[in-house]
Design goal:
By secondary structure, this protein is mostly helical. The chain contains 7 helices and 4 strands; from the N terminus they run αααααββααββ. It has helices at about 1-10, 15-30, 35-50, 55-65, 65-80, 110-120, 130-135, and strands at about 90, 100-105, 140, 150-155. The protein has a two-stranded antiparallel ribbon with strand order 1-2. A two-stranded antiparallel ribbon has the order 3-4. A hairpin with a 7-residue loop joins strand 1 and strand 2 (about 100-105). Helix 3 (about 35-50) runs antiparallel to helix 4. The radius of gyration is 17 Å and the shape is globular.
């Protein structure tokens, strides 16, 4: 699954983010075993349905022929260099400033605090819109700051 994420990310950071979300949904909501290559390629096919420029053939090549593995190894090298021993670990970077590292599971409010520390003048520009909800295949209401946690399937 990690190599599949990197394979999608090789096409664009945005595709990587979207593919990661699809993997999470497949695993956590649909019970799909994302350790199987054929399932990962099915998710890539699903990406193509929503984002037509996503190249499933290139994704499959990168996943099975080494480019995705090479990108993943670069990430693992960074893990070793930074002496990261617990997961999840998030590294927040900002140009010309020291990185901030968050180790372990953290609540959303903690992540917002880190972002505010990195960019004190940053303000929330808007609430989630129906366009945002259509962009993501599924959308969880708390992501928009609305209601109790439950799934809302975007139409």
């Amino acid at each position: 699954a990690c190599i599949a994420f990197k394979s999608a990310e090789l096409q664009s950071a945005g595709y990587g983010e979207m593919y990661l979300r699809l993997m999470r949904e497949a695993c956590m909501l649909q019970g799909i075993n994302i350790a199987h290559v054929q399932e990962l390629i099915k998710l890539a096919d699903r990406m193509k349905e929503y984002w037509p420029r996503f190249d499933v053939k290139q994704f499959s090549i990168d996943l099975t022929k080494g480019k995705g593995l090479e990108a993943f190894r670069c990430d693992m090298n960074e893990v070793r260099l930074k002496n990261i021993v617990r997961f999840p670990t998030l590294i927040f970077r900002q140009q010309e400033k020291a990185s901030l590292v968050s180790v372990g599971y953290r609540p959303y409010s903690f992540l917002i605090d880190v972002i505010r520390e990195l960019a004190p003048g940053l303000e929330k520009t808007r609430e989630a819109t129906i366009t945002d909800k259509k962009h993501w295949v599924t959308f969880i209401d708390p992501e928009a700051g609305e209601g109790e946690p439950h799934m809302a399937i975007a139409q």
